[in-house]
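so my prof wants the structure for this chain in the tokens format not the other one, which i didnt know existed until like an hour ago. anyway here's the sequence
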Amino acid sequence: MSFNPSDILRIMEREVPFNRLLGIRGESAEKGKCVLVLPVRAELVGDPRRPALHGGVVSALIDTAGGLAAWSALEEGESVSTVDLTVDYLEPAGLQGDLRATAELLRKGNRVCHVRMRVTQEGTVVAEGRGVYNIHRREQGGAASRPPDPPLASRG
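here's what i got, hopefully its the right format
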């Protein structure tokens, strides 16, 4: 089954329990790009002295946006998973406004997608990220394609 970017946005919002828990909403999606919004709330604070949101919340938003941008550029029978994620925290994210993540696919290769992401809050860049997403392909029987395991005798 093939998904268009609006289908993927709907799946991300409604069918992924973790995204529902955080409250991530889709603003827009097109092939290789997306914009997501995370309404902030007190339960997401990681440093109550500031108060500042937990870095894991920002990281999860960045990873979700990057994965969605990569997924939106895939062919039928392909899916993605995160293999590398780098997040640079530039400013603390507080409770003063929603977080807005933008993601853009930089390159889709044969095995991986490279995506650049940015999170802003009320116009201030709070984090930037780069992600690498592994491309999984389904064979006609439905199993993910991968090379066979080497014989036990040749494993080091």
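also thought this was worth mentioning. The chain has three helices and eight strands.
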